[in-house]
Amino acid sequence: MLCRKKSFCFESMISRPNEDNPSESKFLLFKGLILALMSGIIYSFISVLVKGITNLHPGQLALYRFLALFIFSLPQTVKSGENPLGPKDLQILLFIRGILGGLHIFLNFIAFRCLPLGEATAIVFSLPAFVTVAARICLKEPCSVLQLVTIALTILGIIFTAKLPSSLMNGNFAYNTESMYGFLVALGSLACNTGQVVVIRMVKRIHHSVLMTHFSIVASVEIAFLTYIFGEYKWHDCGLQSFCIVLLGICSYVGQTLVIIALQLECAGPVTTMKAASDITLAFVWQTFLFHDIPDSCSIVGAVLVVFSVVFIMVGKWIFSSPKDSVQRKRLNWRRFRKTE
Asked: Where are the transmembrane segments (predicted)?
């Protein structure tokens, strides 16, 4: 009870503006969304690394990722003085989170290898719609009309970036075995990631270093077993590839830490929407300038819709933080956008 009370007070201090220091209150107001944006940028770079290292199985790269998470997070956990396995009453949830998170990364890395970078990212990061619904059902999180609009824009943007309108117009539904396998793997990764995000919100009072340590232990064992069954282990090349693997581990730790803190500060729906929007947009930037695959008109329309969804998230957060009798709420008739409890 004491821990829960402290967690509640901590969130209240973050979510409520500080009238004495307006600049600080603005930063705290958008802190969760800013961290989610930064996490999306880092994860988009991770996808480039996974796409570029073709001689190693995606499961082996995922194992490197979780070993790096363990190495970086363990000292922080020891310094915090908390149990690395977490509180006893939440260890089952932490174990479930580790299984779902490990399977999500394993399938996600395979999807990056089997599908074009933009398509794989669009499928995997259609997460916000599923997370918002799951969070509403499992966590009773509020869901406003404005948030539903941003979700709809994100999904519509994903439809365009996946070139579904073009496929419908041309009647071209031909998929080879590798593409169909990648599509199913990406859907599996999406399902596991949805469950993982909901569980993180359920255990948000736990320090992020404990979450990372427990997650890395469970996922490392899981990934090592899955790679042994479905893939193979190889020695990586010396030189540039070794540097890329180290960079993969560092970026994985930083990106995972940012998204966990963001989920502890902000509701799951806005965080995943912001992260997905930034990741999808940058995926096409990397695809254009690094892999020299110029996006078509559908991809451009999708990117614009995704950017609009990010703008709506920020505007909605700003308006909802303003007083009930503020000019902004009165002008936009905020009653229509109140959260549904």
From this structure: 27-50, 62-78, 90-110, 122-139, 145-162, 183-203, 209-231, 243-265, 300-320
Cβ atoms of 46 and 282 closer than 8 Å:
no
192 with 65: CB under 8 angstroms?
no
Average pLDDT score, the chain = 79
Q: How far apart are the C-alpha atoms of 243 and 237, rounded to whole Å?
A: 10
C-alpha neighbours within 13 Å on the C-beta side of residue 35: 22
The pLDDT of 292-306, averaged and rounded, is 78
With helix as H, strand as E and coil as C, how does 112-149 read? Answer: HHHCCHHHHHHHHCCHHHHHHHHHHHHCCCCECHHHHH
Q: Can you tell me the distance from the alpha carbon of 36 to that of 275, in angstroms, rounded to the nearest whole number?
A: 5
Residue pair 196/36 in contact by the 8 Å Cβ criterion: no
- Condensed to tens digits (0 to 9), the pLDDT of residues 188-227 reads 998 999 999 899 889 888 888 898 899 999 999 999 999 9
> For 92-106, b where at least 16 C-beta lie within 10 A, e where not — what string?
ebbbbbbbbbbbbbb
Which pTM value belongs to this model?
A: 0.76
Q: 177-202 and 240-265 are packed helices; what angle lies between their axes, rounded to 10 degrees?
A: 40
